[in-house]
Amino acid sequence: MPELRRDPIIGRWVIISKERGKRPSDFIIEEERTKGGFCPLCPGNENTTPPEVLAYGRPVFAPNTPGWTLRVVPNKFPALVIEGDLDKRGEGIYDKMNGIGAHEVIIETPNHNETISDMPREQLIQIFRAYRDRILDLKKDSRFKYIIIFKNFGRAAGASLEHSHSQLIALPIVPHRIEEEIKGCLRYFDYKDRCVFCDIIRQERSQNIRIVAENREFVAVCPFAPRSPFEIWIMPKRHQSSYTDMDEDQLLGLTNLFSEVMRRLNKALPRVPYNYMLHSAPLRNGSLEHYHWHIEIMPKLTMVAGFEWGTGFYINPTPPEEAARFLREIDIRKEFKKT
């Protein structure tokens, strides 16, 4: 029989359609053909992007030249622009402001064909370090209230360029979805005087049926009420509300666990399109007892259609317990030897 499951943070309901229960081999993933040709993100083409705002791996006195191992540049076609004033105003019952913000591209590797799932840990740790460095730098701009970092992998997940990259957008407002999540955490905290994410981590480690992998600092789980088959959350075991609170030990722990999770996911569902998003506390809220930063990984395996748009419910044909078991049982020892 299908199950209705309620997300304990924001109260969102999902339908776990067990009759449709799908294993990894049941999903049809369209093979993507590489376009080839000119790539503006490859070394040697630095003059085709806006001037970099951060680079690792080469001397700082040689900006916008080859030799880098990671590079961050403003998006050439930004959703928001950094110049100008917000100019908040009303138009009758409607509110609007200028589209002020920052939109950046994190070019994760100089190797055009390298992906997150086959990237060595030394490269991956640079990505997570760059996220932290850019958040801390952009936080200095008082116009910005929230920074979202996300990655689209595969055309079905919204990626327009094949070269491995993620994106950052600094916003002058806190997105509704983040506010909804924070308010849900606060309701739970007001009732139980505990962080809901900390409680999730304790329960998942106790039950051990939805855990994909863990190490000393982080745990990866398929959430109890997942919107997507093989949805995975990666959470720090220490209570922290902001991504920038991480120390170097945690940064290494995140890199190791994230690498393992992505290798497991890629072996279960080779080259599956996915999105991942970093959820962190708003920039101006300080440390929050009730909120816990985390990364959400969403494979693109089902379509959001009329029922989902009309009700806010999601239909998931793969119970998270089965998804976690599939991922946990995958042998990735050979993949780890490559790094």
UniProtKB/TrEMBL annotation:
Residue positions of the active site = H165 (tele-ump-histidine intermediate)
Is Transferase tagged as a keyword?
yes
* Keywords (A to Z) from UniProt: Carbohydrate metabolism, Metal-binding, Nucleotidyltransferase, Transferase, Zinc
- What are its cofactors? Zn(2+)
Q: Where does Zn(2+) bind?
A: C39, C42, H112, H163
Which EC class is this protein assigned?
transferase
Q: Does the keyword Lipid biosynthesis apply?
A: no
Would you kindly state one Gene Ontology biological process term found in this protein's UniProt entry?
A: galactose metabolic process
Q: Which Pfam families match?
A: GalP_UDP_tr_C (PF02744), GalP_UDP_transf (PF01087)
Q: Which residues form a coiled coil?
A: none
Q: Outline the extent of the HIT domain.
A: 196-309
The annotation note on the cofactor reads: Binds 1 zinc ion per subunit.
What are the protein's GO molecular function terms?
UDP-glucose:hexose-1-phosphate uridylyltransferase activity; zinc ion binding
The Enzyme Commission number assigned here is 2.7.7.12
The similarity annotation says: Belongs to the galactose-1-phosphate uridylyltransferase type 1 family.
List the protein's name.
Galactose-1-phosphate uridylyltransferase
Q: Which organism is it from?
A: Dissulfuribacter thermophilus
